[in-house]
Automatic annotation (TrEMBL):
Keyword tags: Membrane, Transmembrane, Transmembrane helix, Transport
Source organism: Gordonibacter urolithinfaciens
Cellular compartments per GO CC: plasma membrane
Keyword rRNA-binding among record annotations: no
PANTHER family linked to this entry: MAJOR FACILITATOR SUPERFAMILY (PTHR23501), VACUOLAR BASIC AMINO ACID TRANSPORTER 4 (PTHR23501:SF191)
Pfam families in the cross-refs: MFS_1
GO MF annotations in UniProt: transmembrane transporter activity
This protein's record includes keyword NAD: no
Entry protein name: MFS transporter
Species lineage: Bacteria, Bacillati, Actinomycetota, Coriobacteriia, Eggerthellales
Amino acid sequence: MGEKSKTGNAWVNFILIFVMGAIFAIGFFKVPPAMGSLMEYFQCGLGEAGWFMSACSVAGTVIAFATGAIQTKIGPKGMLIAALVCMALDSLVGVLAPNVEVFIASRFIGGLGNGFLATAGPTLIALLFKDPAKRGLPNSIWACWTAAGSLIMLNSYAFILGATGSWQGVWWVCLAIVVVGLVLTVFGIRVDHAAEMQMVAAGGDVKPWAGLTSLNSWLLVIVFACFAFIFSAWSAMAPTYLQTPLVGMDMAAANSVSSITTVTGIVGSLIIGVVLTKVRNQPLVLVGTMVLCTVAGVIQFVFTGQAAIIVVAVLVGLFTNIVPPALFSNAQWAAKTPAGVALVMAALPIGSNFGGIPAAPIAGAIVESTGSWAMVAVPLGIVGAIGLVCAVVFMVRCSKYAVGAAKSGSDAQ
């Protein structure tokens, strides 16, 4: 009974943690559907507005070098609280911002919170589920926290806007939701403080750049950066593109279609998980995912027919979200020891953040300078090709390890 009780408590705590992640993501993704209103309010163009999301990636890159040390001071629950505080400040400073510069600063604060949350979630799961064999399901569920929050915001934005009358009303609603989340986190999530501090005691000694000590790890980081560039361009700019005269959707339809990518992204993640368990040559799978991701980048803003756009939204979700699971699975071939794998995993977010930083500003600047959304396919295609080349080089260097390990495991059975 004692063990069953502990497991029950673990799942109750985990569900609350997942809900807090979704609440954070609701606030984090309030900007894309509001992009048009924000540009009009702050009198800025697409290039400058692109920084409304890219500022978050800048913050994530900066904080990635310190989250290990911070977590040793305040623990993973403290990191979760800090993440929600950052999102509350993001909403409060943003809604009161007198100019675009202060608004971008509010997004930087939100990006810091994203870095805290990305570190806290997996650590709390490891703390709650002591048996590594039982962490697979909660880790898989946790991977959907951004998708859950994004899906909720994209499909509720028009309703909240109609009920409150302005984008500021959406920000106030997000602030209220985050405050409720903060209270639930402080009083509802129960973890042993001594145990959590013991678990993270050595975290401050692990530096993200420690994983960037080999060509193989650099190749994976670059692939992750290329994926992030392609994915960020769509997630930040799609609602705006769909509301242009080229496509002609209203706000509700644009946000709804954009959310299709989130749903098919979850499906894609599940499909590639099955593929990775069946195929011995996992580096080859990574190459395949980058081929499809590049295709997704090129087609994002080329089609204007509404039926075609729906197909594009489906494919972008399927073709981009298969990359991260393939990267995480291949991290084991980029290092020679289990400890080295952990270091490579810690370094991968650096690539993700660096790739996400310039995506929306570059896409916005190209549209402003050329007047053509289709021209955005050029940098997206180039970046995808770079990621594909790196994936191919990684496959050439590491396939023998993956196939050899799979063969050894099969022989042992």
